[in-house]
Design goal:
The complex is a heterodimer of chains A (449) and B (297).
Chain A lengths: L1 H14 L1 H12 L1 H24 L6 H9 L4 H4 L3 E2 L1 H4 L22 H9 L9 E2 L1 H4 L11 E2 L9 H6 L3 H9 L5 H5 L10 E2 L12 H4 L7 H6 L28 E2 L1 H4 L22 H17 L3 E2 L17 E2 L9 H6 L3 H9 L5 H4 L11 E2 L10 H6 L4 H4 L5 E6 L2 E6 L21 H5 L9
Antiparallel strand pairs in A: 1-3, 2-4, 5-7, 6-8, 9-10
Helix pairs in contact in A: 2-3
Chain B lengths: L2 H15 L9 E7 L11 E6 L3 E6 L4 E8 L2 E8 L7 E6 L5 E5 L4 E5 L5 E4 L11 E6 L5 E5 L4 E4 L5 E5 L10 E6 L5 E5 L4 E5 L7 E2 L11 E7 L2 E6 L4 E6 L4 E5 L12 E6 L5 E5 L4 E7 L2
Antiparallel strand pairs in B: 1-24, 2-3, 3-4, 4-5, 6-7, 7-8, 8-9, 10-11, 11-12, 12-13, 14-15, 15-16, 16-17, 18-19, 19-20, 20-21, 22-23, 23-24
C-alpha cells in the first residue's frame, strides 16, 4: 500500500506541478517566463538523455534514487519543487557513480544551474549580485525544493537579511517605513541577480524608479520641495529609500538648511534658470556658514588634503542628508578607504583586527581635518590615544611612557607603537614580528639566540 | 649634475645591469643626528636641505630650524633658529646662493631665509583662491620656484615672484592626492599622486601634465616626496618606509631601506637631500632623527 501511495504521489508530482512553475515564472515577467520554459524543456530532454546514458529501464531513473533516498519524500511535498527534481531527473545535476565535485554533483554548481537557466547576470549589467557572480545560486535557492516561491531558502526579506541583516532590520524597525519594502520586499526595487539599469541592483535608475510610484506633478509635492524642480534629481540624496525615523523619510542626519527647506542658502533660487547650481564651489561654498571651523582647521600644521582638494568637504560629507553621523558619505572604512585603501587592506589581512579600524572609527585616533601631529593623531602622546580604549595603566607590565627610553632609538620613548602596528600586520596581536620573542630581542639583545 | 652624483648614479646603473635590485641601490647608514648642540632633541623632523658643508633640519615638532656643519663625516654645532615667521617648518630647499626656502605648514607660506638665518620674505605665491595653500615646492638652479598647491595645481614663479607658468591639476581620479613636485635639468615638471603612486610629467612648455608610465603601486605604497638625481627620480615612500629610484620614463628601478627604529631603518621618512659628497640625508620623522647614508658600495 505504501509503495502504491508513493508511486501515485510521484506520478502526480511529475504530471501536475510544471504548470504551476510556469505560471509563477509568467508572473515574474516575460524574461523569467521564457527562462523557466527553457529550463523545463531542458529538463525533459535531460531526463531522456539520462535514461539513455545510463541504460536505465524506462521510468526507472527517479525511482532508483528515491528507493535509496527515502527521506526525500518530504522534500517532494514542499510548495516549490525544482523542475528536474519533479521530473525525477536526479542525474540532471548529480553523477550517480563518481565525480570530482561535492555532493556527487556532475559539474561546478554554477555551471550546472547555467545549463538550464543560462547566465543570470544580464549582458552589460551595471550591477550584479555577488552570490550570482560567484555562482553561489544555492545561497538563495534550494536546488531541490522549498516552501517558498522560486525555491528560495527563506521568505522574501528574511532571505536578504542573511547577508544584509542591519539594513533589513533597520528598515523594519524605523518609524517611517517605505511601503514597498513592507508590501513586496526588497525585490520591489532591486533585481536579485543583476541590473542593466543602475547600480545597487536597482530595477531602474533614480529618480525614474521612484517616479514609478510617486507622482510629482502636484502642488503639494512642489511646495514641499520649495518650488525646486526636483523630479530630475536623485531623491536618495535626501530621502532614505529604506525608511527612516524622520518625517518624509529623510535620512536621520540632515543638513540644517535642508531641514529648514532653505535650499537657496547654497543653491540658486528655485526660479533661476539653473536652480540647482550652487552659489559657489568647493570650500568656498561651505565657508559661507562654516568659516570658524575652516579657520580652525587651517591654523594647524598639517591639513588633510581633501579639505581643500577637489570637492573639498564633499569628498567625505554629503551636502543634504545621510544615514551616518556628521553627514558622512558612509562608514569611514569606505570614506577613508577611498584614499587609504592600503591601510584598510592591511587591516583586512591582519590576523588580529583593531576594532576602530574594523568598525570605521578612524576618528578615534586621527583628526580627519587637521592636526599639529604626524599622522594627524588626536593626541601628541600615542599612549593617550591608545588609552582612549585600552586601560593599559591597570595591567601592563612592560615599562612604557615618557620615562622609559627606547633602546633602539634614544629620541623615542617606549609606547604602544614600540611593539604594535595600529593598522595590523601579518602577525598576531598587531605585532611586527612573527613571534613575541623575535620582537623582544630587538631591544633585549642579550637574550638573542 | 655634480661629479659625485654622476658617480653615484653610474654605480647604481651598473649594479642594476647585473640584475641586482634593492641591493644595487643600497644605502649604508653612516650617521644619525638626534639633537642640536645644546642637546635639545629633534621632534618630528619634516624636512632636510644640504650642501657639502651644511645640513638644515626643519624640526617641525619644535617649531624651529637646526643648522649643522658637516665636517669630517660628522654633523656638528647644530644651531637652533627660531623665527616668528616660521610656526611649523616642514619642507626645505636651498638655492644656489645658499638661501633657504621653508614651507610653513601652519602659515601656508614659503619663507626665504638667508644663510645667516635672517628672514627675507615670503615667496609671493598667489593661487586661484584664498585656500590655494602650497603643499610642496622645489627651487631650480635659476631660482625659479615650482609650487604644487593643495588643490593639485602647479605654478612656476620666477625669482621675482611672477607666475610664469601654471599646470592645472592632472585629470586624475577624484581621490588622487598630489604630494610633491620636482623639476629636472631639461625643464620637465613632475608631480606625484600618493594614492595611486602615479607620477605625472609635463615637458618644457607643455600646458598640461600627463601620466609618466603606469602606476607604481606594486612598488610604492604612498609616495610623498621626490627629487631628480641625474636620470632618476628618487622617491620617498612615506607609508612604505623606504626610498625608490624611478627612471625619468616612469619605470621602476629599485627600492631601499625598510621600516624600523634602529639606525639604518626608517619610520615614516618624509624628505631627503643629497650633496656633492655623495651623502644622502633622510628626515626620519617618526624616529625623531635625521639619518645620513652613503652608497652601499
Amino acid at each position: 500500500m505504501r509503495s502504491n501511495t508513493l508511486l501515485l504521489s510521484l506520478a502526480l508530482a511529475v504530471l501536475a506541478p510544471p504548470a504551476r512553475s510556469t505560471a509563477a515564472a509568467r508572473a515574474a515577467g516575460p524574461d523569467a517566463s521564457a527562462k523557466a520554459a527553457a529550463a523545463a524543456r531542458a529538463t525533459a530532454a535531460s531526463a531522456a538523455a539520462t535514461e539513455k546514458k545510463f541504460k536505465l529501464k524506462p521510468g526507472a531513473e527517479g525511482k532508483l534514487c528515491l528507493d535509496s533516498h527515502a527521506n526525500f519524500e518530504a522534500t517532494l511535498q514542499k510548495a516549490s519543487v525544482h523542475t528536474p527534481v519533479r521530473a525525477r531527473d536526479c542525474a540532471g545535476c548529480h553523477n550517480p557513480h563518481a565525480t570530482a565535485h561535492g555532493k556527487l554533483l556532475a559539474d561546478d554548481p554554477g555551471k550546472i544551474c547555467a545549463t538550464c537557466h543560462g547566465p543570470m547576470i544580464p549582458a552589460k549589467a551595471k550591477s550584479s549580485h555577488r552570490p550570482v557572480v560567484e555562482s553561489k545560486c544555492v545561497s538563495c535557492h534550494d536546488p531541490h525544493a522549498s516552501d517558498f516561491p522560486k525555491n528560495l531558502v527563506k521568505r522574501g526579506n528574511d532571505l536578504c537579511a542573511g547577508c544584509h541583516k542591519e539594513l533589513v532590520e533597520t528598515a523594519a524597525a524605523v518609524k517611517q517605513k517605505h511601503r514597498p519594502i513592507e508590501k513586496t520586499g526588497c525585490t520591489a526595487c532591486h533585481d536579485p541577480h543583476g541590473s542593466t539599469a543602475s547600480a545597487s541592483l536597482l530595477k531602474a535608475a533614480v529618480p525614474d524608479l521612484c517616479l514609478g510610484c510617486h507622482k510629482v506633478d502636484n502642488p503639494l509635492f512642489t511646495a514641499k520641495h520649495g518650488g525646486y524642480p526636483v523630479r530630475t534629481q536623485r531623491c536618495t540624496s535626501c530621502h532614505n529609500p529604506h525608511g527612516s525615523n524622520r518625517p518624509s523619510m529623510l535620512y536621520d542626519e540632515v543638513h540644517p538648511p535642508v531641514e529648514r527647506g532653505a535650499c537657496s542658502q547654497c543653491h540658486e533660487p528655485a526660479t533661476s534658470k539653473t536652480p540647482f547650481k550652487t552659489k559657489s564651489t568647493g570650500l568656498a561654498l561651505c565657508k559661507l556658514c562654516h568659516t570658524p571651523l575652516i579657520a580652525q582647521m587651517t591654523e594647524k600644521g598639517r591639513l588633510h588634503s581633501p579639505v581643500l582638494q577637489g570637492d573639498a568637504c564633499l569628498t567625505c560629507h554629503t551636502p543634504h542628508a545621510s544615514a551616518k553621523g556628521k553627514l558622512l558619505k558612509g562608514n569611514l572604512v569606505t570614506v577613508c578607504g577611498q584614499c587609504h585603501a592600503d591601510t584598510i587592506e592591511r587591516q583586512e589581512r591582519s590576523p588580529t583586527k583593531h576594532k576602530p579600524v574594523k568598525d570605521g572609527e578612524c576618528y578615534k585616533c586621527h583628526d580627519p581635518h587637521s592636526s599639529d601631529r604626524p599622522l594627524m593623531l588626536t593626541d601628541a602622546n600615542v599612549i593617550n590615544v591608545c588609552a582612549g580604549c585600552h586601560d593599559w595603566e591597570k595591567h601592563a607590565t612592560h615599562p612604557i611612557g615618557v620615562s622609559f627610553a627606547d633602546p633602539r632609538n634614544k629620541n623615542l620613548t617606549m609606547s604602544c607603537l614600540s611593539c604594535h602596528r595600529a593598522h595590523g600586520t601579518e602577525y598576531k596581536r598587531l605585532m611586527p614580528a612573527p613571534k613575541t620573542t623575535d620582537l623582544c630581542v630587538k631591544c633585549h639583545e642579550n637574550f638573542k639566540r | 649634475m655634480t661629479i659625485a652624483k654622476k658617480l653615484w648614479l653610474a654605480a647604481a646603473v651598473a649594479a642594476a645591469a647585473t640584475g641586482a635590485r634593492a641591493e644595487s641601490f643600497g644605502l649604508r647608514p653612516y650617521l644619525a643626528v638626534y639633537a642640536d648642540e645644546a642637546g635639545a632633541a629633534l621632534k618630528d623632523p619634516e624636512g632636510v636641505a644640504c650642501t657639502d658643508d651644511r645640513l638644515v633640519v626643519a624640526d617641525a615638532g619644535n617649531a624651529r630650524l637646526v643648522t649643522f656643519q658637516l665636517k669630517d663625516g660628522a654633523a656638528v654645532a647644530g644651531k637652533e633658529l627660531k623665527l616668528p615667521q616660521l610656526a611649523y617648518p616642514t619642507r626645505l630647499q636651498l638655492d644656489a646662493a645658499g638661501v633657504l626656502y621653508v614651507l610653513d605648514g601652519r602659515k601656508h607660506e614659503i619663507a626665504k631665509v638667508d644663510p645667516a638665518g635672517k628672514f627675507l620674505e615670503y615667496v609671493k605665491f598667489k593661487g586661484d583662491s584664498a585656500y590655494a595653500f602650497p603643499r610642496a615646492f622645489k627651487v631650480d638652479a635659476g631660482g625659479n620656484v615650482y609650487v604644487l598647491d593643495l588643490t593639485g595645481k602647479t605654478s612656476v614663479l620666477d625669482p621675482a615672484g611672477a607666475v610664469t607658468r601654471t599646470l592645472p591639476r592632472p585629470p586624475a581620479p577624484d581621490n588622487a592626492m598630489f604630494t610633491d613636485v620636482a623639476v629636472d635639468g631639461a625643464g620637465r615638471i613632475y608631480v606625484v599622486d600618493a594614492v595611486s603612486a602615479t607620477i605625472w610629467v609635463a615637458e618644457k612648455g607643455a600646458a598640461a601634465l600627463k601620466p609618466l608610465g603606469k602606476s607604481l603601486k606594486d612598488n610604492l605604497n604612498f609616495p610623498t616626496y621626490m627629487t631628480v638625481l641625474g636620470q632618476r627620480l628618487l622617491v620617498v615612500d612615506q607609508n612604505g618606509h623606504g626610498l625608490a629610484a624611478v627612471g625619468l620614463d616612469g619605470s621602476f628601478f629599485a627600492r631601499t631601506l625598510g621600516m624600523g627604529w634602529s639606525e639604518g631603518l626608517v619610520y615614516y621618512p618624509v624628505q631627503i637631500c643629497s650633496n656633492a659628497r655623495n651623502e644622502t640625508f633622510v628626515a626620519d620623522r617618526n624616529n625623531n632623527r635625521v639619518q645620513m647614508f652613503l652608497p652601499a658600495q
